[in-house]
Amino acid sequence: LAPGGSETLHMEGVVEGDLLNTATGSGVPPYGPPIPHEDQAEVDEIHPALTVDKTIYAGHDSGAGCAGDELATTLLGDDVTYCFVVTNTGDTALDQITLDDLDLGITQDQMFLVGFGLAMQLPGDSITFAYETTADGDLLNTVTAQGRVLDPFDAPVPGPDGTVSDEDTAALEVIDPSITLE
C-alpha cells in the first residue's frame, strides 16, 4: 500500500451470541521487519421482549383498582374497567409502545395512562393503561401490545427483529339474575 492508503476486507456470516472478535494483520515494508496490527470489534446479541397482562374489574375509579382479575362477573349495564400492563421483559430498551383491543373496538388512543409512563421503556419497566366502559354482554377479548426495539445506543433496530409483541385475554361474564314469585 502507498503511504496513507488503506484496503478493506470483509467477511459475512451469522453470529450466535455475544462475540469479541480480534483481527490481526501485518504489513511488510520494503525495508525492515513486518509491522503487525491488531484491532477488536464486539457483537452484543440482544434479547428484546415485552409482555402484556390484561385484567378487568367492576366499577370505575380511574384505574386505581388495576390489579383486576382475568375474569369479572357483573350485571348488564354496570361499570367495568379493563387494565393493560405492558412490561419490558427483555434486555434492551423499547419505545413506541402500542395497544390494540379489536374485540372492544379500541386502540391506545381510547385508553388512559394510570400513574406515569415514559416514552422509552427500559428493561424491567412497566406502563399501565385503563379503559372504562359498561358491561353490554359476555366477552372474551384479546389485547395485543407491540413495542419498537432499540439497540444499546437507543437507535431503532431495523427489519423484522425491530418489533416485539405479546397478547393476553380477559373475560367479562354478564349475569341477569331474576326471581319468580308465585
What is shown here, in short?
The chain has 182 residues and is mainly β. It is built from no helices and twelve strands.
Class inferred from helices and paired strands: mainly beta
Outline, from the CA principal axes?
rod-shaped
User: Which percent range fits the helix content?
Assistant: under 10%
What is the count of DSSP helices, taking H or I runs of 4+ residues? Answer: 0
- Catalogue the unreliable spans: none
**Cα-to-Cα separation, first versus last residue:** 106 Å
Mean pLDDT: 90
Number of strands: 12
Proportion of residues in extended strands: over 45%
| Assembly category | single chain
What would you note in describing this structure?
The chain has 182 residues and is mostly beta strands. It is 0% helix and 49% strand. Strands 4, 6, 7, 9, 11 and 12 form a 6-stranded mixed β-sheet that branches. The chain has a 4-stranded antiparallel β-sheet with strand order 3-5-10-8, with no helix packed on it. The protein is rod-shaped.
Secondary structure blueprint with pairings:
Layout: E1 19-27, E2 35-43, E3 50-58, E4 71-75, E5 79-88, E6 94-101, E7 106-107, E8 112-114, E9 120-121, E10 126-134, E11 139-149, E12 163-175
Parallel strand pairs: 4-12
Antiparallel strand pairs: 1-2, 3-5, 5-10, 6-7, 6-9, 6-11, 8-10, 11-12
Key features?
single chain, 182 residues, mainly beta, 6-stranded mixed β-sheet, 4-stranded antiparallel β-sheet
